[in-house]
Amino acid sequence: xxxxxxxxxxxxxxxxxxxxxxxxxxxxxxxxxxxxxxxxxxxxxxxxxxxxxxxxxxxxxxxxxxxxxxxxxxxxxxxxxxxxxxxxxxxxxxxxxxxxxxxxxxxxxxxxxxxxxxxxxxxxxxxxxxxxxxxxxxxxxxxxxxxxxxxxxxxxxxxxxxxxxxxxxxxxxxxxxxxxxxxxxxxxxxxxxxxxxxxxxxxxxxxxxxxxxxxxxxxxxxxxxxxxxxxxxxxxxxxxxxxxxxxxxxxxxxxxxxxxxxxxxxxxxxxxxxxxxxxxxxxxxxxxxxxxxxxxxxxxxxxxxxxxxxxxxxxxxxxxxxxxxxxxxxxxxxxxxxxxxxxxxxxxxxxxxxxxxxxxxxxxxxxxxxxxxxxxxxxxxxxxxxxxxxxxxxxxxxxxxxxxxxxxxxxxxxxxxxxxxxxxxxx
Length: 427
Prior knowledge:
By secondary structure, this protein is an alpha/beta fold.
């Protein structure tokens, strides 16, 4: 006899039973208001696994008494969609939960669109992928997008206690005693994934024989063996990965050593050395740059050492680099300078290369006037001579605006201004 998992049995029947996501379903919030007014619109629920996307959909259906159907965009066919649409035509509004909506192909999408506009089908799409990146604009324009978040520990505790006490859908008929440290492990190891926590709890309860007192005593070791610890880092091609590397760079840019080490630890835990190496190289030259060029060089050496060592030892040079970059003075003047030059170029400001700078190594160049008036700087005192290098049309352009956040760029700024003055240019 097939028995549904505990997480399935404990799904909320009304919007009031939803645990977490109070920014959407709490009293006065948008989904709560939709349900109260029975003015539902199609939506996409986006967030990590086990955070309540399906629960919210079933709770909406339970609160409004509309028919509720579930399909998977990847595995169910266009014919399956047609059956749901025919049901809506015959019996009224149907709420359709479409899991993995980011995998909806064009044929299914084209079939669905007119039915969404008519309001017969209320689509609730569920996805772990960023809909602004992975879902077709035609679907996005007909839905509201709501992000759901991993559940907090106190929210997880409410759901777990409810499951332990419910005698009909939960484990209330079993004489379960769970130690405090075991419950804490259950609530934290799954990183906000309630489905994993509930199913792990059920596995622990049903695989542990009663003790002499007739109780099912769940200890920390039992919970550790029954619940798979969920990684803090998503798949390297997923949205969570990009969020992590973004937070990593922004923490270093903001000079927060502890935050940067935290995000480095997440990436190390995922074993993603290529992403760490690439991101640290970018950070060194984009965010520290001319304020501390030796730190950039040492970062590259640390990356090379980590690549030779591999994990776990590779974490050591990486930590050195991250701490130094965090504590270093910062300057983004180099990236701002090249971006300014590229921007002017894209706007059509470039002009002709001055004749005296053109290639003069071939026979006949002198007849064209190429290179004939070029002044070789090493023939002059201090190996410098005043002459024009930019095209005449943009000869007064300035792209580099030095900062004074470290001794290196402060010195560069002084030299840069002296050279501009000698050229007769204004800053």
